[in-house]
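User: Can you write out an input/output pair for a complex, sequences first and structure second?

Assistant: Here is one pair. Inputs:
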Amino acid sequence: MNWLTDLTPDEWNAVRLSIKVATVAMLASLPPGVAIALLLARGRFWGKTALNGLVHLPLVLPPVVTGYLLLISFGRRAPIGSFLENWFGIVFSFRWTGAALACAIMGFPLMVRAIRLSIESVDRKLEAAAGTLGAHPLWVFLTVTLPLIVPGVIAGSILSFAKAMGEFGATITFVSNIPGETQTLPSAIYTFTQVPGGDEGALRLTLISIVISMGALVVSEALARRVGRRLDIE
Amino acid sequence: MTVAVDIEQRLGAFGLRARFTSSGRLTALFGPSGSGKSSLISVIAGLTRPDKGRVEVEGRVLVDTEAGIFVPKHKRRIGMVFQEALLFPHMSVAHNLRFGRWFTPPAERYVDMDAVVDLLGIGPLMDRRPGKLSGGEKQRVAIGRALLTSPRLLLMDEPLASLDEARKAEILPYIERLRDETKIPIVYVSHSVAEVARLASDVVMLSEGRVTASGPTADIMQRLDLLPAEERGEGGAVLETTVARHDAAFGMTVLGSKAGEVRVPRLAVEAGAPVRLRIRARDVMVATVEPKGLSALNVLPGTIIAIEPGEGASVEVHIDCSGVAVVARITRQSRQALELEVGRPVFAVIKTVSFDKANATAGLSGEIHG
C-alpha cells in the first residue's frame, strides 16, 4: 500500500494548494454571495434580470471561456488586473490567488442559488414582527434573517467548496498549470494522464479527491443537522 | 386622546378612508373580513405607509404625510400581536421574550419581566422552543414578547382567529387581565361580536374601508343594522353588572345592574366582582303587562325609546330599562298585535343571558337559559 501513501512533494503541493484555493474561494465568495442572494431575493430594481443572468453566466458558459474572460480582464496588462496591481499590489495572473478567483467565480452561481432559496423561504412577517419589537433593519437581518438562512448558507458554501475542488477549465486557462503555484488537484491529475506511466499518480490523486469531497459532504450534513435541530423547524 | 387616526390608502377593490379617535382602554376595530381593519392596524404599527393622512398615538405624531413625517416601525414603540404568533423559531421562549426588551432603552423599560410571565402564566415554558408549544401557548408568549417592549400602545390583529374554541377560552381571560391590570391602551382587531362585546371598552365599526360608527361598546352593540349580516343575531345589549349575592337555596347568583337584578345559575366569583352580560336581541321578548306563569326569571321593566325596522319580518325594539338600553328583535306582526309604540312602558323578558366573567383564573363564560 506504499504507493497510496507515499506522495511526491509535487503531489502534496497539489493537495495542499487545492484545499487552500477552495477554502479561500469559498470564504471570499460568502459576503458577496449573501449580499447578491439578498438583492435577488428581496430587491426590486432595474436590471435585476441582468444581474441574475450575470451571476449565472459561469454556469452556462464553457469554463474555458470564463477563464479566458478572466485572463483578458484580470491579467497583469489587462485593465482590472493592472489597476489592482498598481493600487493594491494584488496580482492574480499565474498565482494561486488567480486560481482562487477563478474557482470563486465558477462556484458563485451555485452558492447564490442555495442562499437565495433559503432567503425566499423566510417568513417576512417574522421580520416585520422583529421590527415592531424595536429592532433596526440591520439588527433584524443579523438576529432573525441570518440565523434562519444558516442551513442555506452552509449548503451554498459546501457547493462552492466542492466546485472549487473540481474546477479545471477556467483555472488552467486563467493561471495555467504551475506546480506549487497554480497546479490544483484536477490540473495535477490531468498532467499525470499526459505523461507515460502517470496512471499510478493519477489514481492516487483521484482517491484523495474523492476522500476530500466526501469529507466536505459529511461535515456539511452534520452541520446542517445540528443547525436544523437548533432551529426546530416546524 | 390615546389614538387618533385619519388616513387614506388605496387597497385592492376599495380605498381605505378611515378616521377615528379613541381613548378607551381597549378599542376594538370591528368589521367583516375585507373591511380594512387589518390594513388600518398595519398603518398604525408602521408596517405600511398610508397614501395620505395622520396617525397620532399618546400625543406623538407617527405619520403626517403633509409634514413629511413617517416614524419607522422600530422607533414607534408600539407592540403588535399578530394572528399567527410569529415567534422566532431559532430562539427559546425566554429569548423571544427578551428580544424586544433588549431593543428598548433602559430608561423606558417600565414593564417587569416577572410580572408579565406571571400575568400570562408562561413561567413553565421559558426554556422551550416555539415549535414545541401549543397554539394558545404560542399566542400567550407572543403577547408577552410585545408587552416587554414597554409599548405605548398594544395592537392585536385578530389574535384568536387561528385558534379553536378551547384555545380562545384559554387566552381571553389573559387579554382581560391585560386590559384591567396594565396601563397600556389596546387596539384590538376582530370580526367576532362575542369577542368585542366581551373585551372592548370602545368600538370602531368598519365596513368597506369606511368607519361606519364608533363609540362605547354598549352603544355600538345595539346598532344591529351596523353588524355584519352573519353576526347580526349576536348583537344586543351589553350590561355591566356586579355580583350582588349568591342564593344558596336555588344555587343561583344575583347580579345587580342599573336596570335591575338579573339571576343566573351560581357563578364561582365573590360578591362585588364585575360581570359583563350580553343580552342578544333575539333572546329578548316584549310583554305589555308583567308576565305571570312564565319560566323566564329575568324580567326588566322599561320604556320603549325607539322602534326600528329590522331585516325581513322583524323589527328592533329598543327599551330603556332605568338607563340601560335593551334591544329586542320581534316580528312586525307581534309589534302590531301588542300595539307597541315609542314611550309605552313594557317588560323585557330575557330568555338567555350570555355572560363573560372578568376573572381570569376561572376563565368562565357561557350562556344561561331561563
